[in-house]
Amino acid sequence: MFIAYILACSDGTYHLGITNNLEARVAYHVDGKNANAYTFARRPVQLVFQKSFSDIRQAIAYDAELQTKSEQEVAQIISGKLAVKIESIAPIETTETARKPIILPVSYLGNLAYFSKVNTHQEVLLDVNERFQKQSYRSRCTINSANGLQNLVVPLIRPNGKESLLHEILISYTHDWLKDHIKAIESAYRRAPYFEFYGEELIAVLQKKHKRLIHLNLELTTFFITSFGIDATVRFADLGEESSIALKNEMLPKARENYQVKPYRQVFDNGSFENNLSVIDLLFNCGKDGVNLIG
Cis peptide leading into 263, omega within 30 of 0? Predict the structure, then answer.
């Protein structure tokens, strides 16, 4: 379920947005989690309107129409005196390729090459029955920080050593890596234009402290599918449903430069575009429309 919402600010203005977790989004603004957010200096804020949609495209269209309204019209919408009309959403036409499922390795905050595959298929199966491969994007990602590229690595426990299968891999919390990852993400992207829209929900997923790597990666992948409005479902693959060797090879950091995307504005612009980073770089810098660059 996707929700278009309106917050009333203390200065008489309104903040509009959409989310799939209204409680977390409202708390984000009420608590003032981001000093750069529109609502930060206009607290206290109060939720005064919400409307639910089953199709994210309808939610996006509704929010876009709300954004065109004056503050007087927004007040009338809140009171029920004015209705917001949006055009009906036509079914998405899909190619034969899109109708076929794709089987991908699981990925931690996957890069753009990974999500370019997700974006072109309606059904995504995550390969959880392969042998775990160390030093791959299954348990690490690359972000762009003030000091250049930074790798975030999830520490793991392999119950059966080198023979451990993906679905057996446990996450280790002996070291507080979660705090380090969240701090690194906030430091790198808190000034990004769309961090206030998606940052809190992403951090909430990480803070659940999943026991197994596959469950963390499944929820993260689902979060990005929802945030970008990708028309796809995702599930774990069954026995016998295996990802290809070519797709497994793309999970290696040395393959990162194999995929090229049209440059977009990044928070830290040091004169050269950093290509094919974790998808959080695209989401926080470009918002939901960033998906148009990878499909």
Answer: no
Q: Does domain 2-79 have CATH number 3.30.43.10?
A: no
Give the residues across from 157 on adjacent strands. 170
Question: Cα separation of 81 and 49, whole Å?
Answer: 13
The domain segmentation of the chain, as residue ranges, is 2-79, 96-293
The number of C-alpha atoms within 13 Å of 188 and in the hemisphere containing its C-beta is: 25
Per DSSP, the chain holds a count of helices (H) and strands (E) of: 10, 10
Q: What is the pLDDT of residues 234-272, one digit of tens each?
A: 999 998 899 999 999 999 999 999 999 999 999 987 678
Its pTM surpasses 0.85? no
Token couple for 199: 């940052």
Question: Which two three-digit tokens encode residue 295?
Answer: 């499909």
Q: What is the pLDDT of residues 203-221, one digit of tens each?
A: 999 999 999 999 999 999 9
Helix (H) or strand (E) holding 193: none
